[in-house]
């Protein structure tokens, strides 16, 4: 996940290392070209420029192997428009990158841009650049603020508010992929309008001898489904407060206990397969692709691949609310990139990030090459896709933005909460070795231990 759990971590199939020639043209400047260089202790640049320099500049990007193809494609598109900035793109596996990111950010000559899903520790340690001056210079206040809040932190370490420390390259949304053919065979109408209707569709699948949910109970599947249920039952702000480490926020919420109760109910009635704790992410996706399951909880990072494998047999919907007509909420977050505090060429890097969000061809490429929303100014037209499934996921993302229902992933609350606490506690929940109340308290205890540790 962060490990983004997998939303950010299992992004897409991509190249390892490549070099892309990029170049730039000029726009109006806020100050002299070439400013915004290395700054000490993660402070914001004293002066920034929105004009690209005329002399050659090389920008180095450290990304994940899963994202390298998309970053490369964006670089090629930028090259077609401009021609003075060279991009050297290096990629590492997510696990390796997660282990090495602090060392990469703090070395004497760090890359100008680094993929970093979990950035709270780096922001607190002031080893990444405060992007507030660029947000002001480029007018990023016209972007979705709930999404930018995920990359904000104030001086006290409170997440969700304060200064901006990262910007996404692509913005993900989660929901339910479903097998259209199987839904038709079962006589269930998609999408369900309520949790009860979703429950009924699951029951129909089980009655027909099919898996209702392809469940990756060994790793990320339970947190995904658990949070979808919590979003339906409760207040999204309450869980965001917990994720953003707001004082007094707790995981022990009535909606979370209700969600955990539903998870155990589904294990008991066969909606969640009895062997779910032994099924990992890849296996759950293989089961769904083979037509063995009606649903799989996942995100838009799988849309392009599922469409290529299943064609028009697969659809997508946002997890429904408890009541019909409720505003829909979903985990939706950026693939965040940071500028190291001591990086050179910060102005050029910020220009590139802004271009990805505002240039028509770049926004289209994020949809086509990555399969997710480009983010950026909310008044810009949303790119369309020739792939129906990608079109459905993009529309779902915009529905969440319009309703203000974007929520970060619970596995992003602290660097170690996902694999260290959530995975084993979710497995205990599936196995019936803990009660919903004990489960919620165990997550809270692990969270507090890490924050106080």
Automatic annotation (TrEMBL):
It comes from the Bacteria. Pfam families: SBP_bac_1. Keywords: Signal. Residues 1-40 form the signal peptide. InterPro entries: Bact_solute-bd_prot1, SBP, TAT_signal. PANTHER family: ARABINOSE-BINDING PROTEIN-RELATED, DIACETYLCHITOBIOSE BINDING PROTEIN DASA. This is Bacterial extracellular solute-binding protein. It comes from Actinomyces glycerinitolerans. The lineage of its organism: Bacteria, Bacillati, Actinomycetota, Actinomycetes, Actinomycetales.
